[in-house]
Amino acid sequence: MPRRRITPARREAMGGLAKGLAVIRAFSREHAARTLTDIARSAGIPAATARRCLLTLEELGYVTRNARSFLLRPKVLQLGAAYLESMNIEQLTKTHLEELARNTSDSAALCVLDGCDTVYVARASVRTLLRLEAHVGSRFPAHATSTGRVLLAGLSAERLQGYFDAATLEPLTERTVTSATELRSLIAECRRNGYAVVEDELAYGVVALAVPVLDQQRRVVAALNTSSHSRRTTRTRLLRERLSMLQQVSRQISTDLATVPWLSLSAQL
Questions:
Q1: The model scores a pTM over 0.85
Q2: What residue ranges define each of the domains in the chain, with the CATH number in brackets?
Q3: Counting C-beta atoms within 10 Å of the first and last residue's C-beta, which end of the chain has fewer, N or C?
Q4: What pLDDT band is residue 263 in, cutting at 50, 70 and 90?
């Protein structure tokens, strides 16, 4: 078996910090309260190590206990807020997203790729989609979302292969694409067309259209999307009525990105 390459960053890495972050990531909307055993299993670390991490996080105010379960405290929000505040994303995109949401009477969002997921970093909405409500910080599997496919289409061949090596492509509905071959074909199609449309793959009744947001070097740094319910519109109508609107807003955001080049570096794929 080939030896794993030891990079300078890996030599300097702090194992304790990595384990503490893994413990925080063990919590989710579906698992808001978790036992020590559950947390250790999700984080992939021994129970004794998980316990030390939890006690430290509790002392720092990020975790609290309720009987035999642990829960995150609101202070955890500061960790994610630091990224949004330092990048000034909300102020940068607020007007554009709100205008897009008003013009479509639906939701609009800006997403970036994080691992195998697409993550909402800004959002505006005038209605709530049935069966799916997203907010800043929400993350969904990239393979089942329009934004995810747009972001994957912007990856280099090497990075895209890395995604497929790590992704599980689990079905979220009966219509979710779970074939790597089919997903590669859809990603290639997205790269050619400059947009992606997904219907009933992330959740039944949700149809979404996304386009890339580019930096000054024409690299994909984010994805802009509009979502609706299939009872209100079809994918054909979504393309006809919203694609040009979405592309225009994307260009406006791309222009604004020039004022915050560090956002491009932070989100660089």
A1: no
A2: 8-72 (1.10.10.10), 79-267 (3.30.450.40)
A3: N
A4: low
